Amino acid sequence: MNSKNTFLSLLRLNIYNNYIFFIGYLIFLILCIVILSIYSKTETCILFNGFWTNSQDVFFKYITYIGDGIFAFSIIILLFIYKVRYGIYALSCFSITAIFTQILKRVIFSDILRPSQELYKEFNYGDLHIVEGVKLLSEHSFPSGHSTSIFSIACLIILLFNNKWLSLLMIIIAILCAYSRVYLSQHFLEDIFVGSIIGCLGTLLIYSFIKTRFNES
């Protein structure tokens, strides 16, 4: 069997072994596509902004941190301690997907503004809810770096440990963290949609490629 066939076979196996995660992710993508096909990005932002509560403010204010670079770096360190090979996977997947997203954010789509600027009047006049203690960012909206990071982390963890309950937990956490960026008015829905694809698909491809390249079991 040549390397291409081996790669594709491993890719299919990785998806099959973690079908709960990938089915959950597919549902998330479909829901995003449906919403984005009905509403504009600003309309979507206004729509989600209306569904706020004090308890959600607290929850999403803190869960959003698991999508930042510090958390990803911590996962890399923990995986290196657990097993060096796992740490190498994490470093490769997280770094490549993050760099790709940052190039898109800061070079190719650097002129795309965040909700705070696209809806400046609405936020400035108090028509839209702002979570207390959250500083609204203004630039480099597309795609979402937090969404790339958390979906990369979640995807790698389920690939490494192959557990159906872990798969369910990881997709729930990843979706909640990504959604927190919309809830906190830091990103539009399309930002987290594309960011999640980069993180999830990128990690799946990189992980499968490394295993195929080095003939790892």
Write the layout of secondary structure elements.
Blueprint: H1 3-17, H2 19-38, H3 41-49, H4 54-63, H5 69-82, H6 84-108, H7 115-118, H8 120-124, H9 145-161, H10 164-183, H11 189-213
A few lines on this structure:
This protein is mainly α and 217 residues long. It has helices at 3-17, 19-38, 41-49, 54-63, 69-82, 84-108, 115-118, 120-124, 145-161, 164-183, 189-213. The protein has eleven helices and no strands.
Please characterize this protein's 3D structure:
With 217 residues, the protein is mostly helical. It has one domain (3-213). Helices cover 76% and strands 0% of the residues.
List its salient traits:
217 residues; 11 helices; 76% helix
Mean pLDDT: 95
Residue share in β-strands:
under 5%
Rg (C-alpha, Å)? 18 Å
Order of helices and strands: HHHHHHHHHHH
Q: Ends: how far apart?
A: 15 Å
Beta strands, count = 0
Helix % is over 70%
Which runs of at least 5 residues are low in confidence (pLDDT < 50)? none
The biggest beta sheet, please?
A: none
Number of helices: 11
Shape from CA axes? elongated
> How many domains make up the coordinates?
1
Secondary structure category: mainly alpha
